[in-house]
Write a structure and sequence with these properties.
Blueprint lengths: L1 H9 L19 H19 L8 H36 L2 H6 L3 H17 L3 H21 L11
Helix pairs in contact: 2-3, 2-6, 3-5, 5-6
Length: about 160
């Protein structure tokens, strides 16, 4: 029965082929930038957060609540950045891109590792390195399309 339906449907449609998993134009490193920027922002907030003095239970609860929220956001955004980078790396970039960008695999591998590092620790250095890696990937991505798209951040 499935074959009958498939045959009927295939007679009504043309075969479409694509060089990537999704239609062209759906890939963009902006989502990785937004997530990486959130990691950097939350890392700064965590490092700037001051624990309350003394035994004020209400102030301590507020401090730990805020700290936990910052950590959760940092973790989620680091994972999101990694997922977005891996999608670009594995779905958009093709072997032909390696000719123009021979460091492509190393760049993405290091960026993905930085996503992990920013989850494991609270490091302003690694959060900034992640932003720098995403900026480099932004340049590679748009260069692969022969477009000059400006890099910008929300902050």
């Amino acid at each position: 029965m499935f074959e009958t339906i498939k045959n009927k449907l295939s007679n009504n449609f043309e075969i479409a082929e694509a060089h990537c998993d999704g239609p062209c134009g759906v890939y963009d490193p902006a989502s990785a930038r937004i997530a990486a920027e959130a990691v950097l922002s939350m890392t700064k907030k965590i490092l700037d957060l001051k624990a309350p003095d003394g035994g004020d239970a209400k102030a301590s609860a507020a401090y730990y609540n805020t700290l936990t929220r910052y950590i959760v956001i940092k973790e989620e955004q680091a994972q999101d950045a990694k997922e977005q980078l891996l999608i670009l790396w594995t779905d958009y970039f093709k072997p032909a891109h390696l000719e123009k960008y021979p460091n492509l695999h190393d760049t993405f591998w290091k960026a993905a590792k930085l996503c992990s590092s920013t989850k494991v620790e609270v490091s302003l250095e690694h959060a900034q390195e992640l932003m720098d890696a995403v900026k480099e990937i932004h340049g590679i991505f748009w260069g692969s399309k022969d477009k000059d798209v400006a890099w910008y951040t929300a902050s």
